[in-house]
Amino acid sequence: MTETPAYTRDDLVAGLHARGVCYLTPTPHGDELALDDDALIAGIAAAEDARLRFALAGLFLVHPELANRATALDASLPTSAQAELRKQYVAAMYLQRLWRTHLRMQFGETLLLPEQFTAALDLPPPDMMHGEYGLRLLCDRSAYNDWSSYQQVIDLLSAQPCAPDRVMVLVRET
Length: 174
What we know:
With 174 residues, this protein is mainly alpha-helical.
């Protein structure tokens, strides 16, 4: 297990913006560190800011091809960052199944996140009840209202200012 380097929140937000997850502020100024995928995932998993950590699920939803990076990094992370990586990965896996049509309209056709970490976390397979059952079990383990936080990830991804041109933007009326 290696120590995760401490990146600033701005560095991590800029890394998310560079990968099409741009709902967190501040808007990058251009002087932030450029992070590769591994550094970004590990940095977010170790971040103190809960909104930033939940954005890791958003990153996996927008870029499911990063799933192999999550599994490769898992064993090298400190215990708390490893637990966060696993939590956000399985949340994204369940959210992807639960919101499949919505996400397809927003981002086009993407790969399904492969099932990872469910056995280690004693959670059901991702396709059970279209992911809802597993996500509810995961959220029930938290002292906070993680369900609404994951709903917010979906809502923020749908309304973010950097939506791809090739897909329909879905904005919920209030």
